[in-house]
Sequence to fold (293 residues):
Amino acid sequence: PTEYVSTPIHESGKIVGAVVIFKDITERQLIERMRDEFIAVVSHELRTPLTSIRAALGLLAQEKIDLQPEKRQRMVEIAFSNTNRLVRLVNDILDVERIKLGKVTLDKKPCNLANIMAQAADEMRAMADNHGIQLLVDPLTTQIWADPDRIIQTLTNLLSNAIKFSPNGSTVEMRAQQVDSKSVSRVAQGLNVTGTDALQAGIDASGSVILLQVTDRGQGIPENKLETVFARFEQLDASDNGHKGGTGLGLAICRSIAQEHDGEIWAQSQVGCGSTFFLTLPEYAEAGPEDGS
Ligand code: ADP
Fold:
């Protein structure tokens, strides 16, 4: 509508000039907003792997703690794999055009879900240790049709939130199961989640479905916020930002990654008892849904 604000233009060239300036301001504001969002995205995306690297190096640097050689080696591996992840992320994030368009290019291929879950858990283990959280993983050996880096990114985001919003000494669990469309639909309806129609549509299109769950025993999310937490920049308690870190972008990114995989993501929670985040992904079927061969 901004282009039509100038309806009362007559013949005057001066007024036409004013229209151009108005458009310039609008574009500048748009660019400024995009730049702000871009900075927010960059800071969030860099924070998670950096936190893992810092935690791993922090443990290695403490001479007083006598780390066993295997644990020491594990910390080095965590720092190394997260550094690689950072390099990949920086490359991705610097592709401003894709960010501007809100599009992420996926490199989908058949991949082993158990490996993906193990990698995501490994990346978060140092953070869990630091928070006194026990991280339990029940992996499922199956093939999914996905971009492994993006699924690891989604799972580490969910795990990082679960750890962040849970008390010391509690557990965070990640598990996966193969389900048929009917049972997922029943699960979804039983849990009274939103977006069941979209979920059903995704499942019907892809056949077998993998249901991943990340469960914590943390502070929980009020029912009327279960959907809004997936919106960009949305945080239940903005004061969390200071001491817990985060920008409110993580779940929005998780949701677009899930959608790009024809999957769904939603949450169920009981305030004071904990939350479960659910993610559905298509199981890899022979030629792959996008293979076309
Ligand atoms: P960030 O964690 O960077 O703030 P997210 O988009 O990942 O952003 O999460 C948005 C908000 O949802 C969080 O700030 C928090 O208020 C809430 N939230 C997310 N995960 C959990 C969880 N497991 N338990 C409680 N609250 C959560």
Observations:
- The pocket of adenosine-5'-diphosphate is lined by residues 44, 157, 161-162, 165, 216, 218-219, 221, 229, 234-237, 240, 246-252, 275 (CB under 6 Å).
- The two ends are 46 Å apart (CA to CA).
- The CA atoms of residues 154 and 233 lie 17 Å apart.
- Confidence is low (pLDDT under 50) at residues 1-5, 189-206.
